[in-house]
Design brief:
Blueprint: E1 9-11, H1 21-48, H2 55-84, E2 87-89, H3 91-124, H4 126-132, H5 135-161, E3 170-171, H6 178-183, H7 190-223, H8 228-236, H9 239-256, H10 265-289, H11 292-310
Parallel strand pairs: 1-3
Antiparallel strand pairs: 1-2
Length: 311
């Protein structure tokens, strides 16, 4: 931050817990542990199970990496905030947390979009699927998603770094998000807000439109299948992805697209808590419990473990 007048920022977190700090701390600690374990297990199963070596599961492992990064970026500091009724951070650390958060969110938007294209080809144009969705395409699309998110956000981050920040240095939130960071500035932030809006169109609105178009075609194709079993089989291949898309974009739009005038600060924090803390926990549950391939891989691993144990 350029010529800043503050040496630290103070995150209030949830100041009105009324002695429920310990319970919330334990609850969030359990969520963090389960989130890390769940996403590591997803990555492990896909790595060792040959029947999970397909493009869709490769993309799922990338979502697991994003969920681990997101949780580790937000939750350890959040646990400290809850336990100590707030926490101070250096301005540089605050900006770094926001950048990692933004990069994770953007990358997830882009990878979910690539996954919708994968499902579109698999259901609507299966004859061309293997010629387009190969290992090279998967690796390139993931690398492109990360690079695009890093490069698109970097310009906005540099402009934020140039701002002057003045007292009061208090952020009434549990992590460093863009609106509270800009509220700390005593500089003109209109250019940054315009940049953020344009970035949002590129990395959120456009991917969401592509996903909607993909699923309109997918649903149309599924409805044209005559047999009920064929419809169910086709829909089951994309139901988990569709569920994650609805949860991710639903909470994202609720926080950043819905006007905040009629929304209390507590409601905004609750929604933010959902997509930064709960969503990384829910994703592996959706992809594992609702997926026959994951269940089959687990059963085979358990069977092999029993064989090794008894031998």
């Amino acid at each position: 931050m350029h010529e800043q007048n503050i040496s630290y920022v103070f995150l209030l977190g949830f100041p009105n817990l009324h002695n429920f700090n310990i319970l919330l701390f334990l609850f969030l600690l359990i969520i963090y542990c389960v989130t890390i374990c769940g996403n590591v297990i997803i990555y492990f199963f896909v790595s060792i199970s040959k029947n999970l070596h397909s493009p869709m599961y490769f993309f799922i492992t990338q979502l697991s990496v994003i969920d681990i990064l997101m949780s580790t970026n937000i939750l350890p500091n959040l646990l400290h905030i809850v336990l100590h009724d707030g926490a101070s951070m250096s301005p540089a650390a605050c900006l770094l947390q926001f950048y990692v958060f933004s990069d994770c969110e953007t990358s997830e938007c882009l990878i979910l979009t690539v996954m919708s294209y994968d499902r579109y080809l698999a259901i609507c144009n299966p004859l061309r699927y293997n010629s387009i969705i190969n290992k090279t395409f998967c690796v390139k699309s993931v690398i492109a998603s990360w690079l695009l998110s890093i490069l698109v956000l970097l310009g906005n981050e540099i402009e934020i770094y140039k701002l002057d920040f003045c007292e009061p240095n208090v952020i009434d939130h549990f992590f460093c998000d863009l609106p509270p960071i800009l509220d700390l500035s005593c500089s003109d932030t209109s250019l940054i807000q315009i940049q953020a809006f344009l970035v949002g169109i590129i990395v959120v609105i456009c991917p969401f439109i592509i996903i909607i178009v993909s699923y309109v075609n997918i649903i149309t194709t599924i409805l044209s299948i005559r047999s009920i079993s064929g419809r169910q089989k086709a829909f089951s291949t994309c139901s988990s992805h569709l569920t994650v898309v609805c949860i991710f974009f639903g909470t994202l739009f609720s926080v950043y697209m819905v006007p905040s005038k009629g929304q209390s600060l507590e409601a905004n924090k609750a929604l933010s808590l959902f997509y930064t803390v709960v969503t990384p926990l829910v994703n592996p549950v959706i992809y594992s419990l609702r997926n026959k391939d994951f269940k089959g891989a687990f059963e085979r691993l358990k069977y092999n473990f029993y064989l090794v144990s008894f031998n």
